[in-house]
Amino acid sequence: MIRRPNEVWQASADDVTPKPLFMNRRKIIASAGALGLAGLAGCGDGQSAASAQTPVGNHSPDPQRSLSYTASDYRVSAPLTSYDAVTGYNNFYEFGLGKGDPARYAHRMTTEPWSIEAEGLTERPGRYALQDLVNFDALEERIYRLRCVEAWSMVVPWIGIPLASIIERLQPSSAARYVTFETYLNRSEMRGVRYPVIDWPYREGLRLDEAMNPLAFMAVGLYGEILPNQNGAPIRLVVPWKYGYKSIKSVVKIGFVAEQPETSWNLTAPNEYGFYSNVNPERDHPRWSQRTERVIDGGVFARRDTEMFNGYADQVADLYAGMDLIENH
Ligand code: MTE
Predict the structure, then answer these.
(1) How much is the average pLDDT of 305-319?
(2) Is the minimum distance from the CB of 203 to ligand 1 under 6 angstroms?
């Protein structure tokens, strides 16, 4: 990972939200006519849309898949990664290891009907229909940078609800200290699971106070539409201050436990992937540097400096006060 002298752009500390950019929150109805604007993430600050957020590429949204949502103050002021890259360059190992495999094969996954099982230390265990856990009338858009552990990043306009709203519904009991997540597993629909790269199903976890942080988000859509299967339909986690692999896709189980849970990558390679997985330019992956990242869609040599907590330190650094973040990587 060599840092090029001709970096296309440099991030500054004020690249990251939340910012009171919008005087008025407004409801964006993502109809065919409004979708151009919806994709631009509610530039309600009177600036020209182009100066505030310029999507790369030319996505023409499908009215059949559009969602209704509100713009939010959570946004990175960097160009959006194109729809084609966001939905064509993916990690979803259940469908294969290649970046194009999820777009090629994930349509085989059945996402309707969908339910999520709540288990463990919760006052309300049981199976919930997706619509019972997610209030589709209260969706908001958040433009977050997703920083993959592979040292590349994207800026994605996600649509969803705070993870905290789901946790509050499920009422973890007082002994719960961690929340766990599990991905759907279906051997006939997921060609990648024949390879034992991971002990399937894919599993993740967060400390409960991390999960309750307002930045932690459950996405059901992106770019104005319901999630494409390759991005984790119908519901996936987005934890913007952690490496992308914490953002588990196609969630079918949410559990609450007292002890730090095992997670898929932690089990696969414990020296490479720790439980916390906070974006940290100071802690190299054993096989490569984490100091910079390739900006997907940003041009051939587009790199930026990786920021502590992916630029969200103001919102999350307190969660780790007093902890050695190299040891607890
Ligand atoms: N979730 C499941 N179930 N399986 C996976 O292989 N890959 C992770 C994460 N969630 C993965 C997953 C990794 S490594 C990344 S970088 C992000 O998904 C990628 O999300 P995206 O494809 O929507 O950009």
Answers:
(1) 98
(2) no
